[in-house]
Amino acid sequence: MIGRRVTHRMADGIRVPGTWRPVFIRNGDYHLTDLFIYADGLIDCWELVTLEQFEEKLRCGWVATELPDGARASGHELAAWKFSEPHTWLTPELLLAEVRDTVDQLNGRPDSTDRCLDAVDAFLADRTEEKRAVARAAYLDIPETQRHYALGDMDRKDWPLQVLVAGPGGRTESRPYGGDDPVTQEEYDEAVDYFEDRAQWIAERSSRVPADGPVTPFAPAIQLYESYPLKTSDDPDTRALRNNYPAPLDIDGVTYPSVAHAYWALSTDDREVRAGIAEADTAAAARNLAIGAPRREGWEQARTAVMTRLLRAKFAQHPALARVLLDTDDATIVYDDGDSRFWGDNAGRGRNWTGRLLELVRSELHAERAGIGPTATA
Fold first, then answer.
1. CB count in 10 Å sphere of residue 310
2. Who contacts 232 (Cβ-Cβ below 8 Å, separation ≥6)?
3. What is the pTM for the complete model shown?
4. Alpha-carbon Rg for the chain in angstroms
5. pLDDT tens for each residue of 111-164
6. Cβ-proximal residues to 376 (8 Å cutoff; 6+ apart), any chain
7. What is the dihedral of CA 48, 53, 59, 64, to 10 degrees?
8. Which of 23, 43, 53, 354 has the largest count of CB atoms under 10 Å?
9. Long-range Cβ contacts of 39-44 (<8 Å, 24+ apart)
10. CB 284, CB 311: distance < 8 Å
11. Helix (H/G/I), strand (E/B), else coil: 75
């Protein structure tokens, strides 16, 4: 289960999503560490390995699921101890099955639980013993440690599922309060009712549409790669969204050749430097002039607000460029900035604040177009 443990690694400039879980690595002693699992099927257990190689790591005990009594262990820069009557819940087979499920989840593919519930739906639609056997086999394919969570019901856990795939007179894997009695007809009928109610609830939930629109963009993401435009264009494309695009803007009575010029000028209190920046031929020259000047006090805390103001001014003063921004619809804007991991995404290593602020200003332009902007009247 991924939960909130979300990470990634970069491979050839591509962001590969992943997650992690605690494990013990046996390298002489036992070391408590993180096992990183990635969507492309590679596993980091102190080295990147394929799923097949990871299985070998399990079989040989490098990734340990058995912890001998009295064995020494440590958590890196945290603690060291010896095991005393240790008990583990995992076997190599269980951990491998959980990891395979995690790879499926990272890719948005059905995992063992999804496959089981699909088999249950097929059985409920055609209640033959053959289809029940398929559903039961699919249930047993769910890692034992994960079966309680199959229905997402923390009160009944997987008990209705066990009863359904066992059938009247059949045996369940376990009973909530112990015992080994066969499934009664009453228990089976209750399980069938449970799944019928569950199907109705799921249908109602899936038919609900978020009141304010989708969670994720429907337009494809846009990458604003590094470029160094020297002049304006009569038919600008998305390169015009870059801060160094020559789009003069008036800020407090001073005209700057681009957003980048204005940003660097406002970053310093040195009037002479600010005047030089306003006259600089290129955005790179403006930046070079600003580098040697002192930053304004509190600049780091204020710079996102300043950039927001400048982007608003750019698109207010240049309607043609505003149309370029509006034409990106609701796409995620990925902005590269070789000089700053704060402003640029930079192959997933940066914070992409320029891209995020462009999306904010775009939303404001859409709101104005729809008559619901700040100047609109109720």
1. 22
2. 245, 246, 247
3. 0.62
4. 30
5. 999 999 999 999 999 999 999 999 999 999 999 999 999 999 989 999 999 999
6. 368
7. 10
8. 354
9. 39/103, 39/106, 39/107, 40/11, 40/16, 41/103, 42/16, 43/99, 44/9
10. no
11. strand
